[in-house]
Amino acid sequence: MFNFGFVVEQMLGHVTHYQNLRQWVKQDPSVCPTWLPIEANQNDLWEHLPIVRTNWSLKSSLRARDAIRSSLHVQALDGLFLHTQTVALFASSLMQQIPTIISTDATPLNYDSVGAGYEHKVGGNALLDRQKFLWNRNSYHAATALVAFCQWIKDSLITDYGVPADKVIVIPPGVDLEQWQFRLDRPTHHPVRLLFVGGDFVRKGGHTLIEAFRTIGSDCTLDIVTKDAKVAEKLSGIEGVQVYQNLAANSPELKELYAAADIFVFPSQADCYPNVLMEAMASGLPVIATDVGAIREQVETGVNGLLLPSSDAGTLVTALRMLIGDESKRRMMSIASRRLAEERFNGQTNYNKVLTLMKDLAEERRALKRLPSQTTIDKVVRR
After folding, report:
1. 3-state DSSP call for residue 194?
2. Residue ranges of the domains in the chain?
3. Residue 352, CA distances (Å) to 31, 150, 179, 216, 355 in order
4. CA distance linking residue 255 with residue 64, whole number of Å
5. In what order do the strands lie in the sheet containing 168-170?
6. Which residue, 111, 190, 347, 353, shows the most beta carbons closer than 10 Å to its own?
7. Matching CATH topology for 2-174+346-375 and 192-344?
8. Among 356, 380, 328, which Cα is nearest to 101's?
C-alpha cells in the first residue's frame, strides 16, 4: 500500500486535471490518497496578510506547505504530487524527506512567453525577477522528478532551469476516452454547429470568434460555454448564438454540446496546453485553434485541424469557410482527432503512468531505508 499526498492548485484548467486525477487514483487499490486541493479563496491567515494575499504564488505555496505538514501529523506519506510548481515554493525541506513529483503545464518562463494574453506583466524589476527565477529553479531541482505536460515544457526545464533531462518525464494529462466517445459518423447539421469552450471569454479569443461569426453566421450556429457572466447579455442580439454559463467540467450538459458539434473553434490569445482541446479531440471534432503556447503539440494542422495566428478574424473566417464547405475534410479530421486522442490523451494510460512513477520513487526510497547504514557496515567488517 502506498500513502500518497496530492496537492493541486484549484485555478483555471487545473480543476479539471484534479478531477480526472482523482478518478483514476480511485481505481487503484494500492494507493491510499490524501487529497490537498489548494483553493483560491480560503479564510486563513494568508488571505489577510499584506503582500501575500495579493500574490497567488506566495499564498498557494504557503497554504500547500501548511496542508502537507498538517497531513503528516495524521499519517506519514510515501510520496508527494505537487501541481504545479506554484504550490511548491515552500516545500523544499519536505521534498528532501518525501519522494516528490512536481507536475507542470508551463514553467514561469513558458508563461512569460504568452503572458500578455493573461495580462501578466513581464519584467520591470530585474532583481526581483532574478530572485523569482532562482526560487523556482531551486524548487525544480529539489523535486525527485518532474512531470511535464509536453515537450515545450521539458525543453524549458532543461534549457532555462538546468534540470537534468533524465529527471523530466513528459506525460500529458488525459480524458476518459469512454466518456468522451461519440459517433464519428454523426450526421452533419445544416447549418454547421460550431462549439467554443473557454472560461475566460476574452483571453480565449471570444471577441475574435464573434467578429468572424458575424461574417459567416448564416452558414453556421455557435454554442459558447464560458464563465463570463456578461457574455450572454452582450451577445443576446446575435442570431444563431447560444451561450451556456458555468457548466461543470465533465458534466453531462457539457458532453452533450461536444457530441452535437461539428467543429471546435478555439482562437485563444494565450494558452499553454488547454484541456478543452483534448476533450474536443476525444469527441472526434475537427479543431480550429491558434498557434500559441504548446497547442501545436495537440493540434496537427492539416491533419486534425487548422492552426492560425491569434487575434486575426480574417484568417479565422477563411478557415471556417474552408471546413464548413468541405464535409469530407471535416470527416477526415474528425477521425484523425479521435485517433490522436487515443494515442496521446488516454486518461487511464497517462494518469497510471504518473502513479507508476510515484510508486517507483517510493519503492526506491524504501529500498534505501532498508540498506544498512555505513556505521553498521563498518561494525560488521570489524567483526
Report:
1. strand
2. 2-174+346-375, 192-344
3. 11, 17, 17, 44, 5
4. 32
5. 31-38, 2-9, 79-83, 100-104, 145-148, 168-170
6. 347
7. yes
8. 356
What does the alpha-carbon distance between residue 274 and residue 291 come to, in Å, rounded to a whole number?
12
184/191 Cα distance (integer angstroms): 18
**In sequence order, what are the residues at sequence separation of 6 or more whose Cβ sits closer than 8 angstroms to the Cβ of residue 116?**
122, 269, 270
Query: Could you tell me what percent of the chain has a pLDDT over 70?
Result: 93
Q: Which residues contact 115 (CB under 8 A, 6 or more apart)?
A: 121, 122, 270
CA gyration radius for the chain? Answer: 23
C-beta separation of 104 from 148 below 8 A: yes
Q: Which CATH number fits domain 2-174+346-375: 3.40.50.300, 3.10.20.30, 2.30.30.90, 3.40.50.2000?
A: 3.40.50.2000
- Omega within 30 of 0 (cis) for the link into 84: yes
**Cα–Cα distance for residue pair 148/87, rounded to 1 Å:** 15
Q: Under DSSP, is residue 277 helix (H, G, I), strand (E, B) or coil?
A: helix
CATH-assigned architecture of domain 192-344: 3-Layer(aba) Sandwich (3.40)
Dist. CA 204–CA 240, nearest whole Å: 20
Residues in the chain: 383
Please, which contacts does 76-79 make with residues 24 or more away whose CB atoms are closer than 8 Å?
Answer: 76/3, 77/3, 77/4, 77/5, 77/34, 78/2, 78/3, 78/4, 78/362, 78/365, 78/366, 79/2, 79/3, 79/4, 79/5, 79/358, 79/359, 79/361, 79/362
What is the C-alpha to C-alpha distance for residues 151 and 170, in angstroms, rounded to an integer?
Answer: 7
pLDDT given for residue 124 in this prediction: 66
The three cell numbers of residue 44 are 486563513
User: How far is the C-alpha of 322 from the C-alpha of 316, rounded, in Å?
Assistant: 10
Mean pLDDT of successive 10-residue stretches along the chain, which has 383 residues:
96 88 95 95 88 88 95 95 94 94 94 74 72 92 96 97 96 94 75 94 93 89 91 85 88 94 95 94 97 95 96 96 94 96 96 96 87 50 49
Provide the Cα torsion 147, 28, 182, 350; round to 10°: 20
Verify cis geometry, omega within 30 degrees of 0, for the bond prior to 191.
yes
Q: Which residues contact 356 (CB under 8 A, 6 or more apart)?
A: none
